[in-house]
Design brief:
This protein is mainly alpha-helical. The radius of gyration is 35 Å and the shape is flat.
């Protein structure tokens, strides 16, 4: 019986390893068929290629003149203007205001119909629906 169990265990292990190797083959095939941009993105995801915070350059006193700082500020403001022109650059909260205006308009439209009486079903349709759900249930006590 012990040899049967060990044989069964070995067979299960072989089947399991076969599944693993085919899984590894699938992964290898998928990676080899990846698009061109995949390698650059994989480097980014792994965190490679990012600058080291300890190696941030420090401005020299000559670089810290008012003229250089003003030029840098102007460049930053120009980049900010370009960013703000992008339709996807909506400031936080602005889209919430738009949503609230839409919600209020939807409430007003719904309130117009709230007072109107409207019967969705005829009495015969209601009777048929009630009959569908009128089934005996088991007693719990």
């Amino acid at each position: 019986m012990t040899s049967f169990r060990s044989g069964l265990f070995c067979a299960a292990a072989v089947v399991g390893l076969t599944g693993c190797t085919s899984g590894f083959d699938k992964v290898r095939d998928t990676v080899s068929a990846a698009p061109d941009w995949y390698d650059a993105r994989a480097v980014e995801v792994r965190g490679e290629g990012y600058p080291n915070v300890a190696e941030i350059p420090v401005l020299t006193p000559e670089q810290r003149t008012d003229r250089n700082l003003s030029a840098g500020l102007e460049d930053l403001q120009a980049a900010d203007r370009l960013f703000a022109m992008n339709p996807r650059a909506i400031p936080p909260g602005l889209e919430l205001d738009d949503m609230m205006v839409w919600a209020e308009a939807a409430r007003r439209d719904a309130d117009q119909f709230a007072d109107e009486t409207f019967e969705h079903f005829t009495e015969e349709e209601l009777a048929r629906l009630r009959a569908l759900f009128n089934i005996p249930r088991a007693r719990t006590s």
